[in-house]
Each structure stands twice: as C-alpha cells, then as structure tokens.
Design a protein that fits this description.
three-stranded antiparallel β-sheet; single chain; globular; alpha/beta; five-stranded parallel β-sheet
Amino acid sequence: SARPGRAEARPTLADALDNSNRHWGNFVADDLRRWAAGETMTLIAGQQVGFAGGPLYTLAKLATLIKMKRDLAAEGKEATIFFWLATEDHDYAEVATLSLPAKSGQRDLMTMRATRAVESREIVGPAPIPEGLITQFLAFYNLDRPAWLREGISFRDSFAELLVNVFEGEKIVFVDALLPELRRAGAPLFEKMFAQRDAIEQEIASRSDALVRAGYVPQVVTRPGEQYTLLFRINEHGERHIVTGRVDDPTTISTSALTRPLLQDFVFQPDVFVGGPSEVAYYAQIATLHELLGVPIPRVALRGHALVAPKRVARLFERFGLNAREIFTSADAILAEREAPGVAEVQEIAERAHANLAAEITRIGEIALPAEHALARAINRSIGHIEYHFDKLAERAVRGLVRKEKERWTALRELVATFHPDGHVQDRVVGWFAYWSQFGNHLTARMIDCIEPDAPSFSVISL
C-alpha cells in the first residue's frame, strides 16, 4: 500500500518537481499531487545524464519501472514513477562518451567522446554539451539538429528532454539531483550524518568486512586508515569537495555514491528501488545505515537485463541452433566448439607431434653430444623454433576448419558484434539511440512488454 505523505516536505518538493519537469516539456502535476498526498506507491530508479541518452540499460531501468507500474495497476494499485538524474556527478568522461554500432566492419563500436581541457571536479549536469560532440553525432546519423541538442544546452536538459520525448504519455517524474528543494528536504538527514559520522564509518566498515568474509567485493573500498566519503560541498565554481563538518546551506551539499540512496530513501520514501547490479551492491554495503539514521529502506529490485536486435539478427539463434549464452566470446571460439571432430583431431595430432618431436630431438642429442659438446644449446633453440612454427601451423588449420562454413561464421560474427561488441555486453556500452533511430516507439514498447524485473538472466528482445 502507499506510504503516508510527509506533509512537511512533500507538497513543497512536489511543486518544485512540477516546475522543473515543465521546463523539460513534461507535465506531471496531477501525478505529483497524488504522490504528495500519499495516495500512490513510489517507484524509483536513476542514471547519469549521458550524452544522447546514455547506454541501453538506461531504457531497461525505465522499462522495468513502467512494467512494475502496469502490473500494480492490474492489481488496483496506483504508483508514481520517479527517475533520478545524477546531475551532481563530476565524471565528465562518463557523460560525454557515446558508443554506437560501427558502420564499417573493422570494429564493432564507434565511440564519440569529449574531454575537458583540464582535470576538474566540476559537476557535469549543468555543463553545456560541446559543439564538436553534437556535430559528430548529427553527421553520423545525418540528422537535422533537434531541440534536445540545441546550441548551449546542458547535459541535464538534453538528457531529460530526450527521455520525455521518447516516453511521452508514460508519466515519469524526472528528478534533478541538484534541485534546491530536494536538498532542503534532505537537510534533517544531513544533520544526522554530520552528528553520527563516526558511527556511520564504523557501520560501513563492519558491513564491508562482513561482505568480504561472505566472498563478495564491497562496491566502495578505502585504503587502510582512510575514511569513506559521505558528503561533498559544491562551491561557487560548481566544484565538489569532500566535507566532514556541518554545512550551513543544505542546497550546496552533494551526496557520494554510498549516501545517494539514503537521501533518495529519506526524501521520497520509495516502496521499490530499481537498480543494476552495482547499484544493488551499494545497498548491500549500507543496509544497516537505514536503521541507524531512521530512514525507511525500500524493496530493492534488480532491473531487467535486456539485449536488443533486429528480427533478422535475432533469428540467427534458431537458424544455427545457438543458445544466447554462447555469444559472449568470439565467433571463432564458438565455431571451434561446434566443429569439434576436425578441430579435436588437429589438436590431438599437434599434442602427439610435440611429444614425438621432443623425444626424437632428445635422442639425437644422446647420440651426438659425445662428439659435439656445444650441441645442447642448439638443440634447445631448435625445439623452441620448431614448436613455435608447428603451433602456428596448427592454429591456422583450426581457423580454416572453423571458417569453412562462411555463412555460419558471418552469422556468428554478426551476433557477437551485436550482443557482445568489442568484448562488452551490449546494454552496458551501446547507446540506445542507435536502436531508437531505427525503430522509434517500437523499441520502447517491446522493451516494456518483454522486460523481466528481478530475473536471474537476460532477455533477448527482437525488434
């Protein structure tokens, strides 16, 4: 059931959220009014404000939220979706990098990126998108310049406006992490964190040790003797600097990766938080802090893991009898396993030849060494030289075997390039705009229909 509204914070925050969303062309006043009154459940996820919408898993998070909302509606329960825009981060390289399927066959991905002239801790949300990055993107797709890439637009506004356009009608409330009213609503939490810093440090350290003992790697690790970063202060130049003592103005306080979930849960009191594996791992590290600070903890759900491809590509699985789990390697490696008889015979011959070669050359040495004492070094050199060229010959033979069916190898190469481009899982690196530009609303409709929240494996969605 919906949680009661926090009367002292929710209406003011709702008004501020309404205004900021109107700025992006997103009209959610009625949804915010019901949420502020405690009439709906609260679902939330978030993402960095990446150029051109960021990687595919951004859509996977939103599709997961929408699927959950629809499922709740079928049970007669209303829900409000919030999507947190991580505008306070200072990782410029992350938001100013976009990878897209390459148009040439040399590589799987074509990556566009921009860098700052000097290293900076300046927050990225309000930063303008470089013209060079926009020009490169528009040329790649031969696009007219859209409003969400107008001159001087910030990463924050561009990201929000694009997603509002893509999910028109879905009623998603986008949350600017730098919204002053959000920080003011979090002021009581910040006070508690400053007052209980030592206890918080101890809890995180204890929880991290427990994770290590259980065989897990904590998401945030400190060097011996160092403290965990809890909060930053944003100065007048927009730069984030670590703080340990009280800050008079809560609107200048910025959370770290560990404390962002606490602010989110304190202010919005979500019923469900949706995140990827890393974001879920943060909760594992800070779970005890919710009780320590009096913050309600939501149900933590894993976003659906979805990979996408045109129907023509997706059908290659059935055509060649492949399991989707097999594609996270190279086409040669897959075919090597499937051409087992011929490959196994070549490998067996190679192993037998190695053994015979070593034995025969050793015998030569036994015969000739009494007459030629310098022969031992030459024998070792010869064995290494012959083995090297023999291995190369065997590798070439294997490659020839695995590629003998050109059509099959070409199909597998396309599957690998689509789902595991340049050795990376598709949804973590490939910009979703590549598929949106091709399939439009069909992409989002299919993702929402097919996404599986909390699933232990990924889905392949054909478009």
